[in-house]
Write a structure and sequence with these properties.
By secondary structure, the chain is of the alpha/beta class.
Length: 522
């Protein structure tokens, strides 16, 4: 499949066919496809001009802004590998990712100068190039716009093949260390084509990308709109503002956006007089992902966005899109994640021996998609665990009903999804376990009306020790991103901690116990 277009090729094609067409926009500036093509070429050559080569890894750390679109295309054009980094991570977490992928450069927003400055002091970072957006704070930094200078054109761009790696998307692992998911150009092109086919997008569509540009969700939808020649509006607000979202949807005549349940709940909670100010008639398609949505919420979404068709999807950074719950199925199969995408793969639900289980029985969910990832960066053991032949699993447990719909039972080894962000309990448990007073700890997700789930820590202290919720939270904030820090903490005795016969903590039993206690208290 070497003939499949990369996003670099796609932008070049759109620049030739529709040079004046609006390709991307944020609150500060716009890019026609012709401008996008030119600036991506200049940036690719500018990166080569500072010594970077095909195959080098380039970290990207920034809030949402139009430069993400330029950078992704430029790196594809130069055959370099994009390493998008979640801006909510702490300096040690960011440093680990940069060291693990052996990043040759980091492009960052000015808001992160202090964090990046602390990382630069480490020995492993001494030979790395540092590019800063908007400014050039001190010696040793390279200004982003300086790389756009035309004199860089003397550098010949390499030939890039679609089966080559285009990105490493880091996702937290159950061992607490992030894993680099290897994505190639072919996979991204196939996801784009499958998305356009299944959801009916055309070059006349305009997408508002609200999710962070470092997330697979925004990346995959950006790829889709690039390949079809649509328009991407980048929501560059540093925090979510529900009324501002409506203002942009109306002003830009947006036809599609993807949000998590928390976003929809915040929009619907606005006063009627506020919501009535904005014309939502252009919004024809809406996506909700990352957490289940209650029937009342779905009905309210469809009532407010009266011309909108609602979709839900399940997927992963590794497998790409796996299932889709289509507009006509939203209320009929409430709680299901849908069925397979058209022409995009098959699903098996198997037992511990790899045998298919009967409909209605819970097993591990495996998918076989044409755009599956190539493996985990420098982690052959985890790569081998993810595959059974051509079938891929990220550890989700589910069941299939008699109509072929998939229902998730447990997410990625007890993963918590809070406000659309993935939180792996083991990572939080590792940090809390470093507190000398703590004997044992289990981290679970509890239902939350606003965030979908909230992080809750259940702690056993050593005999004679005392601790407070605030103390535990303060400890966590020194090493963890804010969304991973427990929003609530419970202290129990060792005898009260539910365990298997071999001593493993039963996270599911804890979720049931504390969810029940929450319901009683409510």
């Amino acid at each position: 499949m070497d003939h499949l277009l990369t996003i670099s090729d796609a932008v070049a094609t759109q620049a030739s066919l529709y040079p004046a067409k609006l390709g991307a926009k944020d609150s500060r500036r716009t890019l026609t496809y012709a401008q996008w093509h030119e600036r991506a070429t200049n940036l690719a050559q500018g990166l080569m001009g500072i010594g970077l080569q095909k195959g080098d890894r380039v970290g990207i750390l920034a809030y949402n802004r139009i430069e993400w679109m330029e950078i992704y295309v430029a790196l594809a054009r130069a055959g370099m590998i994009a390493v998008p980094i979640n801006f909510r991570l702490t300096a040690p977490e960011i440093s680990y990712i940069l060291d693990n992928c052996e990043a040759d450069a980091l492009i960052s927003g000015p808001e992160f100068n202090d964090i990046v400055g602390s990382i630069r002091k480490e020995a492993s970072a001494s030979n790395r190039h540092y590019v800063v957006l908007d400014s050039e704070p001190d010696s040793g930094w390279i200004g982003y716009e300086n790389l756009m200078r035309p004199q860089a054109s003397e550098f010949t761009l390499p030939e890039v093949h679609s089966e080559e790696t285009c990105a490493l998307l880091y996702t937290s692992g159950t061992t607490g260390r992030p894993k680099g998911v290897i994505r190639n150009h072919t996979g991204n092109a196939l996801i784009a084509l499958a998305t356009a086919l299944e959801m009916g997008f055309t070059r006349d569509d305009t997408a508002l990308l609200v999710m962070p540009m470092c997330h697979a969700n925004s990346i995959y939808f950006a790829m889709t709109f690039i390949h079809i020649g649509g328009t991407c509006i980048i929501d560059d607000k540093k925090s979510f503002d529900p009324e501002e979202l409506l203002a942009v949807l109306a002003k830009e005549k947006v036809t599609f956006t993807s949000l998590v349940p928390t976003h929809y709940i915040m929009v619907l909670a606005l006063p009627v007089e506020v919501k009535s100010r904005y014309d939502m008639s252009n919004v024809g398609k809406l996506l909700v992902s990352s957490a289940p949505v209650r029937k009342e919420t779905k009905r309210a979404i469809l009532d407010y966005f009266s011309n909108g068709k609602l979709y839900e999807l399940y997927g992963s950074t590794e497998a790409g899109w796996v299932t889709l719950l289509r507009p006509d199925e939203q209320l009929e199969k409430l709680g299901s994640v849908g069925r397979e995408w058209v022409a995009s793969g098959l699903i098996r639900i198997v037992d511990e021996n790899g045998m298919d289980v009967p409909d209605g029985q819970v097993g591990e969910l495996f998918s076989r998609t044409p755009y599956v990832f190539s493996g985990y960066w420098k982690n052959p053991e985890k790569t081998a665990q993810a595959f059974r032949g051509e079938w891929c699993s990220v550890g989700d447990m589910g069941r299939r009903d008699e109509d072929g719909y998939i229902w998730l039972v447990d997410r990625k080894n007890n993963m918590i999804i809070s406000g659309g962000e993935n939180v792996y309990p083991s990572e939080v448990e590792s940090v809390i376990g470093g507190l000398s007073k703590v004997k044992d700890v289990a981290v679970i997700g509890l239902p939350d009306e606003k965030w979908g789930e909230r992080v809750h820590a259940v702690i056993v202290l050593h005999d004679g020790q005392q601790a407070t919720e605030a103390e535990v939270q303060a400890w966590c904030r020194t090493s963890l991103a804010g969304y991973k820090t427990p929003r609530s903490v419970s202290f129990i005795t060792d005898a009260e901690m539910p365990r298997t016969a071999t001593g493993k903590i039963l996270h599911r039993a804890l979720r049931q116990q504390f969810s029940a206690a929450r319901d009683v208290a409510a």
